[in-house]
Amino acid sequence: MTIKPLVTKHYETIDAYAGACVARELLRLTPAVVVLEENRPIDVLTASDLALKPHQLVIDCLHGSPTVSCTESTAAVMSLMKTTGKIVLPVIYNDNFYGLIYQADILSYLHTNHEKQKLALLAAAHDLRSPIAAIDMLGTILRADPVLNKHLHLIDKLSETCDYAQVLIEDIIITEKSHSEELTLLDENLDELVDECTTSLSDKLKDKQLVLSKQLCSNRAVKVDRLKLKRAIGNILWNSIKFTHPGGMIMLSTSEAANNRVCITIRDTGIGIPESMRENIFDKFTKAKRQGTAGEPTTGLGLYLTKTIIESHGGTIDMESDGKTGTSFIVSLPA
């Protein structure tokens, strides 16, 4: 989006040769004033400019703000503001002064627009649940029809697609809600919580004949949102299961760390993560996604959600992999 709809054309002005004390009083009422020389806008002045260059006349306090076109994108203007440290910039259109663009107005728009998109995405996800469930039910009915047995491979494909769609919808709903939901922080035994994360995945471990080794040595109480942290750890474990060949091993451990922190480490003997994928592994709808070793689908949201949850607890998550012989995820949390 361009900044044009966000440009304000209502602003105070001051003559370039007015006293700085006059500008200071004016800036008590407005965040910025447009400086005029012979009734022509030449710059924009803020209280920060006066503080950085304290002189008698307004013209001597100016820093020479860069101008932007009203056709510039919000992202480009925000980047320029970050580089220059400016909270407001003069806007030009057809080589003429057009108005002012404030950082606060861009941020307000982006926040409002993000909330609208989030609500639309949640509404769409909820609306898709019923038709996908109906299609899945149709597949069940078709599978029971002896006349259609010769098309069983197509029915299986239909069922797999519905399963993937349902997982994706749930991931979208959980991910979008995670940004706005408050954490319910309670003291929890870390080892017990981590151990519980393996229970719901026991069938998947058996299906792939994977060995799970546990060394839970922390025995510390941590203040966490139990359900959310279990989801985060469960996502990492499921990731290890997906990308480890049958007969492989997953090692889960907890330990004490420096600065009154605890660590949760999950290592596997799987296929590893190629270097080309590592930079984007925690991105939302990451491109660094692929099928598991048994064809398990991936939505590209699991590790993004995991990172979001862990960071909301004041924690960090790191990933290590040589791209060939497994992957390690190390979670650090305040104790």
UniProtKB/TrEMBL annotation:
**Which PROSITE patterns does this entry report, sorted A to Z?**
HIS_KIN
Annotated Gene3D superfamilies: CBS-domain (3.10.580.10), Histidine kinase-like ATPase, C-terminal domain (3.30.565.10)
Task: Answer whether the UniProt record assigns the keyword Kinase to this protein.
Answer: yes
Gene Ontology MF: a single term: phosphorelay sensor kinase activity
Which SMART domains does the record associate with it? HATPase_c, HisKA
Task: Tell me which residues make up the Histidine kinase domain.
Answer: 123-335
Give the catalysed reaction(s), semicolon-separated.
Answer: ATP + protein L-histidine = ADP + protein N-phospho-L-histidine
EC number(s) for this protein?
A: 2.7.13.3
One Pfam entry name:
CBS
Q: What is this protein called?
A: histidine kinase
Query: Which organism encodes this protein?
Result: Parapedobacter pyrenivorans
